[in-house]
Design goal:
- Keywords: Signal.
- The chain has helices at 29-38, 73-80, 94-100, 109-121, 134-146, 157-168, 178-185, 189-204, 209-221, 224-228, 230-233, 240-249, 251-266, 286-292, and strands at residues 45-50, 53-60, 84-87, 172-174, 271-276, 296-301.
- The protein has 304 residues and is of the alpha/beta class.
- Strands 4-3-5-2-1-6 form a six-stranded mixed sheet, with helices on both faces.
- Helix 4 packs parallel to helix 8 (189-204) and helix 5 (134-146) runs parallel beside helix 8.
- The radius of gyration is 19 Å and the shape is globular.
- The two termini are 29 Å apart.
């Protein structure tokens, strides 16, 4: 349940208890220099060419470890050969839309109590998540749990690329609006209880960290088969409601994403497109959809 709208870490208040998820420490100047100089390629990367011009498609992970934001040789080349960065969502667009939305769906009392208990376990202040949709509450708790293995949303590739683009004055284009992505995140009313119950059960049983580590490892190696098989092993698609929601959240967004990437490339600039790696596999894989739209798609990492 890791998705681009999981950027609520700005709300987090570090707890003093020893069992709180650890707050990530920034690297020293020496560490940062070493990581920047020796970063390997991580994550799948394609060159996409149409109309005599190449853009690049990068499958990202929306969280990472402290040394992961540093680009490897292939991603550095993609950056040098492009002029525009395209991402799923600009995080700056999210909070105003959340603030203007109607109140979040009310969970049944037993689920609400379980959610609050899990938030307390994660050392969040009481009620801090209550104003957000239930799926964003779950996503926030999942990311906090991931901190126990050294992962953090602040180390995700999307965030690193956006920070670099803004530091250099490079244009950043959002492929989706915050309203569109929030709509995709929300389960149907008759699915909500099932999805929240399943996710809370995973968190309470300590079953979240293993799939997250496996996902991160598959992404870092560019293992497209493991990424394509994610629904089979994530423990997040075990019921009809979970499978239907995951399909809407991932596959059903790929067609519109492919259309917007095509339109952006057609404007005449070379674009580095950074989209979650789970959109790159399965029957509606973005590389496949772009090939159907006339792009020559060449895998760069891992090389074919």
């Amino acid at each position: 349940m890791i998705r681009t709208t999981l950027l609520l870490l700005a709300l987090f208040v570090g707890g003093a208890r020893a069992d709180c998820p650890p707050t990530p420490a920034p690297p020293s100047a020496a560490q940062a220099a070493a990581w920047a100089a020796h970063a390997p390629d991580r994550g799948p990367l394609w060159r996409i060419t149409r109309d005599g011009r190449s853009s690049w498609l990068y499958g990202t992970l929306h969280l990472g470890k402290a040394d992961w934001p540093y680009a490897g040789p292939a991603l550095r080349r993609a950056w040098a050969e492009t002029e525009v960065l395209a991402v799923e969502l600009d995080p700056a667009d999210l909070m105003p839309v959340l603030a203007a939305r109607p109140p979040a769906a009310t969970l049944p009392a037993p689920l609400a109590r379980r959610m609050e208990a899990q938030a307390a376990k994660a050392c969040l202040p009481p009620g801090v998540l209550a104003a957000f949709p239930p799926v964003l509450q779950l996503s926030t708790l999942t990311l906090l749990e991931a901190r126990r293995d050294g992962f953090d949303a602040g180390f995700g590739q999307d965030m690193a690329l956006m920070a670099r683009a803004r530091a250099e004055g490079r244009p950043v284009r959002a492929l989706e609006s915050a309203a569109e992505q929030l709509a995709a995140l929300e389960p149907a009313e008759d699915e909500l209880t099932d999805i929240v119950d399943g996710a809370l059960t995973q968190l309470q049983r300590g079953q979240v960290r293993g799939p997250l580590r496996r996902l991160a490892d598959a992404w870092a190696r560019g293992d497209m088969q493991a990424l394509a098989d994610y629904p089979a092993w994530c423990q997040c698609a075990d019921t009809p409601a979970e499978r239907a929601w995951l399909t809407r959240l991932n596959d059903d967004r790929n067609g519109p994403l492919a259309e917007r990437i095509t339109a952006l490339h057609a404007q005449g600039q070379r674009v580095l497109v950074a989209v979650g790696a789970l959109h790159m596999g399965g029957p509606q894989a973005l590389p496949r959809l772009l090939a159907e739209r006339g792009f020559h798609v060449q895998a760069i990492v891992p090389a074919k």
